[in-house]
Amino acid sequence: xDKKATLTLNDGKSLDFPVLSGSIGPEVIDIRTLYAKSGxxxxxxxxxxxxxxxxxxxxxxxxxxVLLYRGYPIEQLAQHCDFLxxxxxxxxxxxPNARDKDAFVSTVTRHTMVHDQLTRFxxxxxxxxxxxxxxxxxxxxxxxxxxDSLDINNPEHRKISAFRLIAKLPTIVAMxxxxxxxxxxxxxxxxxxxxxxxxxxxxxxxxxxYKVNPVLVRALDRILILHADHEQNASTSTVRLSxxxxxxxxxxxxxxxxxxxxxxxxxxxxxxxxxxxEIGDASKIPEFIKQVKDKNSGSKLMGFGHRVYKNYDPRAxxxxxxxxxVLNELGLQNDRLxxxxxxxxxxxxxxxxxVSRKLYPNVDFYSGIVQRALGIxxxxxxxxxxxxxxxxxxxxxxxxxxxxxxxxxxxxQLYKGxxxxxxxxxxxx
Length: 429
Ligand code: SDX
Description:
By secondary structure, the protein is mainly α. The chain has helices at residues 34-38, 74-80, 83-92, 98-109, 119-122, 131-141, 155-181, 194-203, 214-226, 234-244, 249-260, 268-279, 285-293, 314-329, 336-349, 352-356, 363-373, 381-401, and strands at residues 4-8, 14-20, 28-29, 58-61, 66-69, 72-73.
């Protein structure tokens, strides 16, 4: 029997709505006919209880601290796969066999160069422009270069756009960093892996050969896997909403980058590292915690808390492990900030204020420390997050465009403004 939910109104009228089930996770009440039947909207700022779509890509169980990409646990993907295998999985729904992987890697590799005219976009920015401002602008500008594939209803156009975005984001992110430092751009190399190529474009200089460190490359590759997708988070919802109007994929990804920049979202890794620098020393932790508990201070424990995870973010655990690996490889076991972060985590996890609010470290708490150890400056952290999340945004955008239920997103509102009134002549106002 089909499940239903019944809404009983004050006038005694009852309205039935279908209850829909997914493969795992909470059921949903299909309220698409609510306004037609009742003349009322639902009210859910921040979408705490609202499913905006159906999706088969990523699943989070926030209470259990579980994250699945196409059904595979993030821990297993981080251990057994690399980022491009994960990209293939998110885009196609299955992990590639060796032949498919080789073909996918080869296609991505051969799309890593950008049109040389694109280099001119950088010179319009101040050298000290925040790299995220540069990234939003340059990625949005990509739509001016690919008029051959902007028909979003053409699956082939969507496919080549996906390859171009996944392949070119590392090149553009590295260019943003080089522009900021005043060093020359480094072109991609087809004989390097995706993450090794990115590290070289970031840190190589023409004056000497760049030596790839496999441990650091593997750490970066894992960081990209952990950040690749995450259900309908703010930036993914932004990409979906932009795409629902028919905007081209480059414009939609630029919108996602803009949203990710916020400190409550992808900007939290930069904010978390700045917070650790501000605390400075473990002896200052009690004072900082006291400040965070004082709502008037406006201080938050950056890198803690999550809308969905009310348990430990599984990505934070993996990021902490990666931290250990990288710091050990670099002989930085006593890294001041890492020790401070672990001390802060210990205090917070034993403090009733955070425990009662189910605030645990999220992916951003340790990612800044790992990236800093890799030589990536704080201002670049959210660019790296954008690089990784591009595949998730594209996979979700693709799924939405292909969904027969898809419509342009247009939320309604609870209006609390002035009722109709007449304009008075200015001498009567
Ligand atoms: C990401 O959505 C995603 O999936 C995002 C992401 C992804 O992969 O796409 O996982 C990436 O954005 C991770 C989150 C990074 N942000 C931060 O680390 C910034 C700090 N965290 C908070 O801003 C906050 O936890 C949010 C924004 C992440 C979640 O906010 P919610 O779900 O709206 O929760 P809330 O603000 O209602 O908090 C509940 C309570 C409040 O206290 P009370 O009003 O109940 O007294 O917890 C408090 C909040 O004040 N609180 C915090 C806190 N986070 C929440 N107090 C101190 N420090 C914090 N970090």
